């Protein structure tokens, strides 16, 4: 008589035939490679080209986000970094939270924080306006036209 024993520390709900963990593993590899490319290009453009770190200020970010390419670039970095980190934390929670109730609440907190960060970050990237029309002139940056 042969008995099959599941791998140790494998949660009961994952012992069936599911590809979720395989897809999560593949996402981590793909998003990691993309993040390396996105982040090193971001660092090169911001710190090496032009005046380097001395040019980084509010005006630099405002000028950069006036270009839709950089908006999408920063959005991809935000989304990939948050989803990559969330997937990693989900794995840590699955490995180390032994009680099902604790695991559930930790994941609820993780997913809530991730959703809020992604939504707020996306809103900031696409609604950023360095020269709001009703702002007081003394509060506007020097590059904004004075009405």
Description:
Keywords: Electron transport, Heme, Iron, Membrane, Metal-binding, Transmembrane, Transmembrane helix, Transport, Tricarboxylic acid cycle. It comes from Jiangella alkaliphila. The chain is mainly alpha-helical and 147 residues long. The protein has one domain (21-129): Fumarate reductase/succinate dehydrogenase, transmembrane subunit (3 helical TM bundles of succinate and fumarate reductases, Up-down Bundle). It is built from four helices and no strands. Helix 1 (20-48) crosses helix 3 (68-96) and helix 3 (68-96) runs antiparallel to helix 4 (100-127). The radius of gyration is 22 Å and the shape is elongated. The N and C termini lie far apart (87 Å). The model has no long low-confidence stretch (mean pLDDT 87).
Descriptive tags:
mainly alpha; 3 helical TM bundles of succinate and fumarate reductases
Set down the secondary structure blueprint.
Layout: H1 20-48, H2 58-64, H3 68-96, H4 100-127
Helix pairs in contact: 1-3, 3-4
């Amino acid at each position: 008589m042969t008995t099959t024993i599941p791998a140790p520390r494998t949660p009961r709900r994952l012992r069936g035939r599911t590809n979720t963990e395989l897809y999560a593993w593949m996402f981590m590899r793909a998003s990691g490679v993309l993040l390396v490319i996105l982040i090193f290009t971001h660092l090169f453009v911001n710190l090496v080209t032009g005046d380097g770190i001395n040019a980084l200020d509010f005006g630099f970010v405002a000028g950069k986000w006036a270009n839709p390419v950089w908006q999408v670039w920063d959005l991809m970095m935000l989304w990939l970094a948050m989803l990559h980190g969330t997937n990693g934390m989900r794995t840590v929670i699955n490995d180390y939270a032994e009680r099902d109730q604790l695991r559930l609440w930790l994941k609820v907190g993780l997913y809530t924080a991730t959703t809020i960060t992604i939504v707020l970050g996306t809103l900031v990237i696409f609604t950023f306006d360095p020269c709001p029309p009703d702002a007081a002139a003394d509060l506007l940056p020097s590059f904004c036209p004075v009405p």
